[in-house]
């Protein structure tokens, strides 16, 4: 199976799989420009752990792996592996600034609960994988 690419939407048709906010795109563009990697994008992924069962991860990546979903939104290439996609479908990557600093976050319609720090989540009727997920926000 090869990577699936979804071009930037035309008109008012939103990208359904995953998107990035205007502010998130501006921050990502700045980070990507300083990365030194040509044709790099933002890889968004899910891993087990965190206080709610699953934890978000993001990285600058210039590789397109077999099975990746590749979406270009607001000029930013977003890469999602096939295992993470079902849990991220319909999500929006954003950047938030607050008194503690700033960082990327994921607005995920699939999450039914999340920890207070916003870096981990749980879906309906899903137990934490492998018995993980009982720690607090500091356990990331």
How are the elements arranged and paired?
Elements: E1 4-6, E2 18-20, H1 22-33, E3 41-48, E4 54-61, E5 69-73, E6 76-80, H2 85-88, E7 91-98, E8 101-107, E9 113-114, E10 120-122
Domain Core: 18-118
Protein name: Iron-sulfur cluster insertion protein ErpA
InterPro entries: ATAP, ATAP_core_dom, FeS_cluster_insertion_CS, HesB-like_dom_sf
Quaternary structure of the protein: single chain
Largest sheet, spatial ordering of strands: 1-5-6-3-4-10-9
**What is the CATH architecture annotation?**
Sandwich
The backbone outline, from C-alpha atoms, is globular
What Rg, in angstroms, do the CA atoms define?
15 Å
Count, helices? 2
Could you explain the architecture of this structure?
With 140 residues, this protein is mainly β. The chain has one domain (17-117): HesB-like domain (Hypothetical Protein Aq_1857, Chain: A), CATH 2.60.300. 11% of the residues lie in helices and 37% in strands. Strands 1-5-6-3-4-10-9 form a seven-stranded mixed sheet. The protein has a three-stranded mixed sheet with strand order 2-7-8. The relative contact order is 0.25.
